[in-house]
Design a protein that fits this description.
about 450 residues; alpha+beta; Heat Shock Protein 90; about 30% helix; about 20% strand; Auxin_embryo_med; ATP-binding protein; HATPase_C_sf
């Protein structure tokens, strides 16, 4: 079955309700999901960027363009076109293609619905075909429901509507603005989302804000550049070279990061705890390990702790969590709220991750201090989080465990003792001949010199 035929099939399936009450209840649920849940005007752009990032062909990077055409916003990419399975996921809730794939960054199956918080008419272009989701489309009233929609609405004191957000409508090329169609075809874009904006100024400001905050794109796995066309053109390029990531705007370096990614085995005791977590997706419960990435800012060629306002937690795209004052950015598979803006504090999964972050940060510092950055690594030493909640408590516990178990302090001989195994010579007497370092180190503890 080709894509156009499958679009027609889903249209038929998703309008086939035995009672009008079933249709309107589904419609109201989807309205709440899109408009009440996703209040951040940038969130739908994040979701579409994540979809683009997950669409990469094997061994190929993805290009993205975000461009305004009057009151329409076009977000397009060079990744894989939609399959029939992708279309099915798009026209459903929690039936997306990512829910069982640990390699994919999404899992909730509702991310695309964020776009309906900003628009009541969204067109999709893929495989050289168009289809749309349109609140104002004249869906047919079924005769089996009653004589007329007007009578039903009067009798039930309720305005009828279909769940248009999951009903794909085949769309002809002549229904698309000519300049948009030419742009997509001429530039060989594989997938595009064309959004008729209800409030262009709000979205324009949101896009402008994204351009200014290029770190938002740091942990996307497969996107290599994003072109923004607003009142002028901006091109954000992500250069990944081993463990360094540099971000450029129009060819000019904007920021550089040093990153460290580790696969962390999920302990058996954590597995037992998360079995009871209903919000945690099966693909995380069943995973043997997860990846945690730490990113340290390089400022003036020096490793630097993050400033206030920079301290974000990422689940591949940024959450809105700014309460946790960490010296580095952290990206991993956090369990987030449905709108992906907050973390579940009482989740055993998130609590284990927070403790692990502290341990891995000290382990990374131990590696860095013996490399090119040497003592700069200590700029990344974390402080205990002062707010009181379960996640902070676990992070602070992780710091204590790290101080007891991880050798990270560089000694005068290049050794790495643990905190309680080191002697700091504040007197500098170890440098004097009449005493010397051996006398001070008679307990066999490594000696630290102050620089």
């Amino acid at each position: 079955m080709n894509l156009r035929e499958y679009i027609s099939k889903i249209y038929s399936d998703n309008t086939d309700y035995s009672k009008p009450e079933h249709a309107i209840n589904q419609a109201e649920s989807l309205k709440s999901l899109s408009r009440d849940l996703y209040t951040d005007s940038k969130r739908f752009i994040y979701e579409l960027l994540q979809n683009a990032d997950d669409s990469a062909f094997p061994e190929k990077k993805v290009k993205v363009c975000i461009r305004f055409f009057d009151s329409q916003l076009v977000i397009c990419h060079s990744g894989q076109p939609f399959s029939n399975r992708d279309l099915r996921g798009l026209c459903s809730v929690n039936d997306g293609t990512k829910k069982n794939s640990i390699e994919k960054t999404g899992y909730k199956g509702i991310g695309f619905k964020a776009v309906f918080g900003q628009s009541n008419r969204v067109i999709i272009f893929t495989n050289k075909e168009y289809f749309r989701f349109d609140e104002n489309y004249p869906f047919e009233w079924k005769k089996s429901w009653g004589n007329s929609q007007q009578n039903w609405e009067h009798e039930n004191d309720r305005v009828f509507s279909f769940p248009w957000q999951i009903i794909p409508i085949p769309t002809r090329i002549d229904e698309i603005k000519k300049n948009i169609n030419e742009f997509l075809v001429f530039n060989n874009w594989n997938v595009a989302t064309i959004i008729s904006l209800q409030n262009k100024n709000t979205i324009f400001n949101a896009v402008t804000n994204l351009i200014k905050n290029v770190n938002m794109f740091l942990f996307l796995k497969n996107i290599e550049d994003i072109e923004f066309v607003t009142d002028r053109s901006y091109k954000i390029t992500l250069n990944r070279n081993n463990n360094k990531i540099s971000i450029e705007e129009n060819g000019t370096p904007k920021v550089e990061w040093l990153s460290c990614s580790k696969k962390i085995l999920i302990p058996n005791d954590v597995r037992l705890q998360i079995e009871k977590e209903q919000n945690l997706p099966d693909k995380l419960k069943d995973a043997p390990d997860i990846e945690i990435t730490l990113a340290a800012k390089i400022r003036d060629k020096q490793l630097a702790s993050l400033s206030s306002g920079e301290q974000l937690l990422y689940s591949y795209l940024p959450t809105d969590e700014k309460r946790y004052t960490l010296p580095v950015l952290v990206n991993t598979s956090f369990l987030t709220s449905a709108n992906r803006e907050a973390l579940h504090e009482n989740s055993a999964w998130n609590q284990w991750i927070f403790e692990t972050i502290a341990l891995e940060l000290y382990q990374w510092i131990a590696e860095l201090v013996k490399g090119e950055f040497e003592y700069q690594a200590y700029n990344l030493l974390p402080k205990k989080i002062s707010i009181y909640d379960a996640l902070s408590e676990k992070f602070n516990s992780g710091i204590e465990k790290a101080l007891e178990s991880i050798p990270f302090i560089i000694s005068s001989t290049g050794e790495l003792p643990k905190r309680d195994e080191a002697i700091v010579d504040f007197t500098f007497l170890s440098e004097k001949r009449f005493i010397g370092s051996e006398k001070i180190k008679e307990n066999d503890y490594p000696l630290l010199h102050l620089n």
